[in-house]
Amino acid sequence: MTFDFLQVAIIGVSYLLLLFGIAYITERGWVPERITNHPVTYIFSLGIFASAWAFYGVIDLAFQFGYGALAYYLGTGALFLFAPVALAPLAELARRHQVHSLADLLVFRYHSNAVGALTTLCMLLGIMPLMALQIQAIADTMHILVVSGDGNPSLSVAENGLTFKDVMAACYCAILALFTILFGSNRDQHRGLITAMAFESLLKVCAMFAVGLVAVFGVFNGLDGLNEWLADHPENLALLHTPIQDGSSHTLLLVFVATAVTMPHIFHLGLAENPLMRNSRTVTWAFPLFLLFMALPIFPILWAGSELAVPLDPQYFTLGVPILFNSPSLTIFAFIGGLSAATGAMIIITLALATMVMNHWLLPSLRLAGRNDLYSQLIWLRRILIGTIFLGGYLFYWVLNNRYSLTDLAFAAFIETLQFLPGIFAIIFWSPGNRRGMLAGLSVGTSIWFFGLLLPIFTGIKVLHIPFTELYISVGNEYWNSITLFSLGLNTAIFIGVSLLTEQSEEEHYSADLCAADELSHPVRQALDVHSAAEFKERLAKPLGKVIASREVDNALKQLDLSINERRPYALRRLRDQLEGNLSALMGIHVASEIMDNHLPFKVADERETLDINLIENRLAQYQNHLTGMAAELNNLRLYHRKTLQELPMAVCSLGPDTEILMWNHAMAQLTHTPSDEVTGSYLEDIAEPWRSLLTDFSKSREMHYYRREIELEGRPHWISLHKATIEGPITEGVYDQVMMLEDVTETQLLEQELVHSERLASVGRLAAGVAHEIGNPITGIACLAQNLRYDSDNPEVLETADQILSQTDRVTRIVQSLVGFSHTGHTAKSEFQAVILRDCAKEAISLLSLQKDKQQVQFINEIASNAIVAGDTQRMIQVFINLLSNARDASPENGRVLLASIEDEYSIEVTVTDEGSGIPPHIQDRILEPFFTTKEPGEGTGLGLAMVYSIVEDHGGLLDIVSPVDTVRNRGAQFIVKLPRHVDSLVDI
């Protein structure tokens, strides 16, 4: 079966255009998010693990190693089964610190750009055979379809010069380079690319499964036929248990178990770009299930190829079986499946390598000019690198000239990437590892791999002479097992030994702590050398340019939902971390860290470090759903105690040694009218007055208590009592945080003042009673003398004088009697209430108020009906009128009028007091009767008068109401309405 070249080319290009289209419409938002963000999409995107070698070469692996071939799936599947332990921590580090490549992760952990540069070099050397594998698979399968004879597919051996396969390989690389440049060179997360990779994974697994079904049901006529064939050909079953290459299954498992974290394309899409990895519970079963579907057809395809006598190497049985089965459609489907497998791996490999080369080779050594177009420079630099890496992969393929099988090339790549395993393992599980050990171990392991596998691939040598000795070592792919164990073992031993013999730097130790657990492992609060978010732009303008600096800062502020006016230290620390992460994604961890350390450094560390409580709270809030066992119980206990503090009716705040606010509970927010979110993480000096001065002074004072400190709030005096305690920090002795408790004692203070005032009034009343008794006798004598004078003389002038004397003595008597009566404030029980004539009570109150000559004078008009009689306490009713009339007088203009009137019905009497003042604003009418609320100037009123009126009226079974404004035209005047039950005996007079 031969296909026309044009047909195959159109099919291949159409498929690639389909991938382009999927990526394009996803980037434009035309594909619903429920599809692009679905876990199934991300699971299938991890299928780039199954490259062309998994589609074709794994059949050859099964032919050579029997059941040992399953190590390819078992190793990776086992790693994903333990994803919560093995992969999730790495994925979380990648997310938190914007790590997009294995080199970035190692640089972050070992805090050395030399590690990044060496990692990039080793990865380039190791991955070139894998790229050549993909190109070779596509070139070979196109040659099989187009050039081979009808019904007799074949594959020619190595040729010299530029062949048909070379041209096809070059065209394939050029098209893929264009696609990768278009959809993978920007800095954003590649949703379109992920969706396209998910589609290619779905297609290749369907293609391989379809070939497997044809092998079982087409070639062997079902499972029973397959069992009969195996019974007739027992040598095929024997090869499963006693393969051609024996004794290497454990080494195979070791090689393949590390691929999920050491292969750059799997790390890039699986850990750096894939949000599903953070939900590791789904990955633990979903991706192994995907691998199961990929593994099921392997042995049926191998046996079908043997039965059909496919004249190809076993590595191409996946394509040969449909050809010999005479199924053109299945043949094309299988070809597209292999094309899809190679395409996905090539694209992601190139993106990962381009990122590593740019971040760890070029950017640390280049000075990019024209900072205002930094983004475009980085994009063009990445595009050039993508093209260069594709060219390098093609040249590697061309030099090898089909001399090696796909399995040989795969082993060369996998064994080199395995050398990164000790360094990666130490990221999470062995914090003593340092950069010297990493560099030494990786260098030795890679050197052994280079001379044992890569050099023989290029030169064809089989024996290597060790200089200065007479020793000769056998090298080449035939000895991959020994080379793997020796290189990895020596790598690990040197890494551990050098790490134990040398010390970590402070930066390495810090990074190791962050990686070993999480950010909570080093929650020390560090101070920044900046004081506002706006200052970030000024500092970063020098390395990035004003435009880029402004854009990056604005983007980070938007991600954190912060304002450019932000000044809180904790918020600024978060902003710095976010900026460093964003710049790491843009230009790599090393360059981003260098920029931040040089232009936005932390202050010199104080020996007395303290915990970053805000950081701990933030992280625990994020992780609380993932905590289990004792950790979950401890977190619940923490939440309970924190809620207790937050809900306390006492205002509480806590401060660090540098006066940074660590906690601000609800009562504190209510007292200060400042929400917790606005002040938590701020310094005391940044909060509003009067709290800034009060709390700062108390914080610095050696006194542990301040009693009744007076402050002014909303124009009114308030009294606050403060108490504090010191708490020694858990990580440094002698460093103390402070906990402050504030108590608003304003009501108590005013009550005490009112009590003092009442005592004074009582003293005045007792004095008035005594004075009245003492004055009464002389006044009586004067009145008698004046009376006698009227009878002793007929002189009109004398008589007039006598009348005036009698009039003034009567006035003095009434005044004294009023004072005595007012001093006897009643507390009569309801059962002892008597008839009270409201007109007389109002008249008495007016008389008393008229004695206050220092107050402005108004005209009191008493129009209360004489039969307005209620049951009550006369003195307390006088108190009601005194308070109401006093407020009306104060609110009225000079010489204004205050009108007292009454309305009666059968059961109640309604008395109104109306003034001509400015009225009561609507927003305070609901509060006007509250104790201690007053609109008068400080010292002019206590805020208890109307509260007392309300209490007395309520004790008398009445109601108090307020109408304001009375004059709706001029919007002036206030009216107080007192409604009281009528005295029963007064009903007779109605």
Q: Supply the number of helical segments.
A: 41
As laid out across the biggest beta sheet, the strand order is 4-3-7-6-5
Query: Major beta sheet, specifics?
Result: 5 strands, antiparallel
Terminal CA distance? 124 Å
Describe the structure.
- The chain has 990 residues and is of the alpha+beta class.
- Helix content is 62%, strand content 9%.
- The protein has a 5-stranded antiparallel beta sheet, sandwiched between helices. The chain has a 5-stranded mixed beta sheet with strand order 9-11-12-14-13.
- Strand 5 and strand 6 form a beta hairpin.
- Helix 28 crosses helix 29 and helix 36 packs antiparallel against helix 37.
- The longest helix is centred in the C-terminal third of the chain and has 47 residues.
- It starts with a helix and ends in a 9-residue tail after the last strand.
Defining traits:
single chain; 990 residues; alpha+beta; five-stranded antiparallel sheet; 14 strands; elongated
Short description:
The protein is an alpha+beta fold and 990 residues long.
Q: Helices and strands in order, then pairings?
A:
Elements: H1 5-27, H2 33-36, H3 39-45, H4 52-65, H5 71-81, H6 83-86, H7 88-96, H8 102-110, H9 113-146, H10 164-184, H11 191-219, H12 223-232, H13 234-241, H14 249-257, H15 259-262, H16 264-272, H17 280-295, H18 298-308, H19 317-324, H20 328-362, H21 374-400, H22 406-417, H23 421-429, H24 435-459, E1 463-465, E2 472-474, H25 480-501, H26 506-516, H27 533-544, H28 546-560, H29 569-587, H30 589-599, H31 613-623, H32 629-647, E3 651-655, E4 661-664, H33 666-672, H34 676-679, H35 691-700, E5 705-713, E6 716-728, E7 736-744, H36 746-792, H37 796-823, E8 834-837, H38 838-849, E9 859-863, E10 869-872, H39 874-891, E11 897-904, E12 908-914, H40 922-925, H41 945-955, E13 959-963, E14 975-981
Parallel strand pairs: 9-11
Antiparallel strand pairs: 1-2, 3-4, 3-7, 5-6, 6-7, 8-10, 11-12, 12-14, 13-14
Helix pairs in contact: 1-10, 1-11, 1-20, 3-11, 3-17, 4-18, 4-20, 5-14, 5-17, 8-9, 9-10, 9-20, 9-21, 9-22, 9-24, 10-20, 10-21, 11-18, 11-19, 11-20, 16-20, 18-19, 19-20, 20-21, 24-25, 27-28, 28-29, 29-30, 36-37, 38-39, 39-41
